[in-house]
């Protein structure tokens, strides 16, 4: 099965990793941390509206996803701390948290998601990942993959 809608999320992970790495070198434009934090917030929200909603709603795996939701909240706190404190140390802390969380998603959750979905469901899931925010929640409720 060559279709991999989760490539969108992996690409965002890579972008965020590069952004934090760049910030950790101290070579960052003062506006970049805010832009990075905004991209992180958007990414976390996308996962919560799509990937997490799928696992909770369709597969009923609320307990397993609760751990990842807690990590998302911790990442939000870390991003806020990074914005307030700035600097190389803040970027390194955020980088470590991102690496740990992204590894869990990429090594466990993403492969399990692909294994659980049929080809048609994978295609629909990919479409949802590309759907503007205000339509995703509606589509998830209506279609129930």
Distance separating the two termini: 18 Å
Task: Specify Rg, calculated over alpha carbons.
Answer: 16 Å
From N to C, what is the helix and strand string?
HHHHHH
Shape: elongated
Main beta sheet: none
Find the count of extended strands (DSSP E, 2+ residues). 0
Low-confidence stretches: 134-145
Number of helices: 6
Helix and strand content put the structural class at mainly alpha
Which band does the percent of strand residues land in?
Answer: under 5%
- Report the helical percentage: over 70%
What would you say about this model in short?
The chain is mainly alpha-helical and 145 residues long. It has one domain (7-143). The chain is built from six helices and no strands.
What is the topological layout?
Elements: H1 7-24, H2 32-58, H3 62-85, H4 87-116, H5 119-129, H6 133-143
Helix pairs in contact: 1-2, 1-4, 2-3, 2-6, 3-4
């Amino acid at each position: 099965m060559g279709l991999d809608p989760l490539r969108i999320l992996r690409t965002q992970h890579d972008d965020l990793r590069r952004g934090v790495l760049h910030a950790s070198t101290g070579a960052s434009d003062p506006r970049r941390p805010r832009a990075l934090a905004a991209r992180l917030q958007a990414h976390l929200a996308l996962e919560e509206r799509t990937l997490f909603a799928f696992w909770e709603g369709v597969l009923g795996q609320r307990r397993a996803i609760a751990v990842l939701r807690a990590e998302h909240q911790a990442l939000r706190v870390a991003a806020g701390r990074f914005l307030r404190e700035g600097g190389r140390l803040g970027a390194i802390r955020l980088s470590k948290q991102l690496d740990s969380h992204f590894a869990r998603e990429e090594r466990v959750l993403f492969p399990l998601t692909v294994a659980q979905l049929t080809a048609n469901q994978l295609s629909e899931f990919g479409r949802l990942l590309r759907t503007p925010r205000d339509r995703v929640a509606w589509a998830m409720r209506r279609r129930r993959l």
